[in-house]
Write a structure and sequence with these properties.
This protein is mainly beta and 115 residues long. The chain has no helices and eleven strands.
């Protein structure tokens, strides 16, 4: 079992920055990769960024150059640094962990970007 707890969401003006955190606990050794997803109002959940155990990263085209995913193994935490935020980035952001055939999700944190 893996538990994920997100934090760091909030309200920010367009052009601003936020850093989301995902605290990981449980069977951390079993995790293969972690990621951030989001669900905007009226839309399906979509991938934002992922990071593998080896540190390889991948991003949605819409966030490349603005968002950065990273992990601090000493703190068992994964981050999503979001810069140059746009109103269309408004969504609930979810932390995700893949462990073999199992997929775990956090409860989500709301990010609202005002114009």
């Amino acid at each position: 079992q893996v538990q994920l707890v997100e934090s760091g969401g909030g309200l920010v003006q367009a052009g601003g920055s936020l850093r989301l955190s995902c605290a990981v606990s449980g069977s951390i050794f079993s995790i293969n990769s972690m990621g951030w997803y989001r669900r905007a109002p009226g839309k399906q959940r979509e991938l934002v960024a992922i990071i593998s155990n080896g540190g390889n990263t991948n991003y949605a085209d819409s966030v490349k150059g603005r968002f950065t995913i990273s992990r601090d193994n000493a703190k068992d935490t994964v981050y999503l640094q979001m810069n140059s935020l746009k109103p269309e980035n408004t969504a609930v952001y979810y932390c995700n962990a893949v462990s073999g055939i199992y997929i775990y999700w956090g409860q989500g944190t709301q990010v609202t970007v005002s114009s």
